[in-house]
Amino acid sequence: MTMTINTERRFRHSADAVFEAWVAEETLVAPVTKIEKDVRVGGQYKLFVEMENFTAIMTAEYLKIEPGRKLRYSWEWNDDGEETTVEVDFIPEAEGCVVRVTQGAFEKQESLDRHAFGWENYFDGLERQLN
To answer: Are strands 44-51 and 54-66 parallel, antiparallel or unpaired?
Structure first.
């Protein structure tokens, strides 16, 4: 059985502003310690989590980019064999935007749960950086 994350958050900022923050290397949300992004279709995207007793690397490739509207990229932690696809929609509203994230397909409930927690953490951190 495959599983998918569907989550969204409202922001009081324009879709363009949230998109730009999303793709900026400067937008670091703990526990991520470093980001490398080549924001173009076919470009690589890497997140690094480096702690005293733990290191993790997420690798991705940008599959679709529509500035201010949509991103799609692959997603895999530590070459663990569970590659998912992340789709991010930036939906304009009268007083900001809604960001909708869809990620899947997951094969393990534990992985889905960790990623769902991670997206909520990322939304919180992104909101702090935008404000």
So the answer is: antiparallel
Q: Please tell me the predicted confidence (pLDDT) of residue 117.
A: 95
Mean pLDDT of 102-130: 94
Q: Collect contacts of 88-91 with beta carbons under 8 A, ≥24 apart.
A: 88/22, 90/15, 90/16, 90/18, 90/19, 90/22, 91/15
Contact partners, residue 40, CB within 8 Å, separation at least 6: 62, 65
**What gap in Å lies between CA 114 and CA 92, rounded to an integer?**
28
Q: Say if pTM beats, i.e. exceeds, 0.85.
A: yes
CA distance 111 to 119: 12
What number is the average pLDDT over the span 52-67? 95
72-87 pLDDT, tens digit per residue, is: 999 999 888 899 999 9
Distance of CA 91 to the CA centre of its chain: 16
Domains and CATH numbers, the chain: 3-130 (3.30.530.20)
Residue 4 carries which side chain, given as an amino acid letter?
T
Tell me, rounded to whole angstroms, the distance of Cα 75 from its chain centroid.
9
Distance of CA 7 to the CA centre of its chain: 11
